């Protein structure tokens, strides 16, 4: 089996989950998020683009229902033994196969939690599932039960995040080596991803963001490449990925002579991220982090140029996003605890002057001050 964790760690995770299920009075949980299945069993696939679910009973019994294409995948990459196949056919409704499995598992009339808020469940599947189970038992939205358990990283998980951070640094080194007037974004992007693959890393859960000129103000990937001008700006957001664990970084690199606005926005980013480091620790909340971000940026008169979130939890994630549910936004009561891997980003997009500036890195929380996982300082990068 291609397992990245010891079986004892999987057993510990299952024990934590079933304890939480009993607190929530759940007889069973239907997991549709691929990262939940990976965390609990090691199951590693992109087959969640089709219907599949992992049934977990409060007594620790587990059963996977998936397609034939993932049968060997599940056997090879996970600790799962009870694997059921639904058959591809015209007008197939795999939720009926699932209901029959739930009957076999003696769950008729049970209180069942479901992971609805995940890319592993489409709206169509949710409607079919509700139609099958509404009169079958009591259905509860349990979208964030496993997600919250995954916030705290084990020592092995921390080691994977640290390795991902090394790969992220390697990618930045590769980008800096190529960034100059006339450089092609395509070459820079290829070098960054190549550095991660060469270091034994994985595909990230979403595309790297690269944009120069006016596109440097974007914070999403888009198709199309350009070559850098003699005076230009290049925004990069990327993540090292190892065993699906991510460590993200973000930088805006200035090519040629920086403008006064570049320097002004960089100073705001640097001041804010250093202030956030003082509250990124136990005793504070995710909302407190955002409040610090908003206060400093807004005091500098940059309120309309910032975003309404300034980071999020990171971990083992699958496409289409490496972002976890838990984000730094206004009012988020999620407590910060030790051994969380958290990405803090400052993104300022001044559309009035066409100036971009970003600064971001991943931290590991401790009992006191957070530990930045990057070997790169937060210095201004001008080339």
Automatic annotation (TrEMBL):
<dbReference type="InterPro" id="IPR000994">
    <property type="entry name" value="Pept_M24"/>
</dbReference>
<dbReference type="Pfam" id="PF00557">
    <property type="entry name" value="Peptidase_M24"/>
</dbReference>
<dbReference type="InterPro" id="IPR029149">
    <property type="entry name" value="Creatin/AminoP/Spt16_N"/>
</dbReference>
<keyword id="KW-0645">Protease</keyword>
<protein>
    <submittedName>
        <fullName>Aminopeptidase P family protein</fullName>
    </submittedName>
</protein>
<dbReference type="InterPro" id="IPR000587">
    <property type="entry name" value="Creatinase_N"/>
</dbReference>
<dbReference type="InterPro" id="IPR036005">
    <property type="entry name" value="Creatinase/aminopeptidase-like"/>
</dbReference>
<feature type="domain" description="Peptidase M24">
    <location>
        <begin position="161"/>
        <end position="366"/>
    </location>
</feature>
<dbReference type="Pfam" id="PF01321">
    <property type="entry name" value="Creatinase_N"/>
</dbReference>
<dbReference type="GO" id="GO:0004177">
    <property type="term" value="F:aminopeptidase activity"/>
</dbReference>
<keyword id="KW-0378">Hydrolase</keyword>
<keyword id="KW-0031">Aminopeptidase</keyword>
<dbReference type="InterPro" id="IPR050659">
    <property type="entry name" value="Peptidase_M24B"/>
</dbReference>
<feature type="domain" description="Creatinase N-terminal">
    <location>
        <begin position="13"/>
        <end position="152"/>
    </location>
</feature>
